[in-house]
Amino acid sequence: xxxxxxxxxxxxxxxxxxxxxxxxxxxxxxxxxxxxxxxxxxxxxxxxxxxxxxxxxxxxxxxxxxxxxx
Length: 70
Known about the structure:
The chain is mainly alpha-helical. It has 2 domains: 31 residues; 39 residues, no CATH class. Helix content is 63%, strand content 0%. The protein contains 3 helices and no strands.
């Protein structure tokens, strides 16, 4: 019985070490501020035409990639 308790304790300790290592790896990841990410998204949305919203961008014309070609 004490052997099982020791094995279980070692298992729990190993899981804690693995989790700690995973957290350290996440800590090293580069971060982007929310304001910066938001401004990049806003610039992309404002500069990229969405042909599925003609009320905003107007008719697509011949460059419409969604038109069916016969």
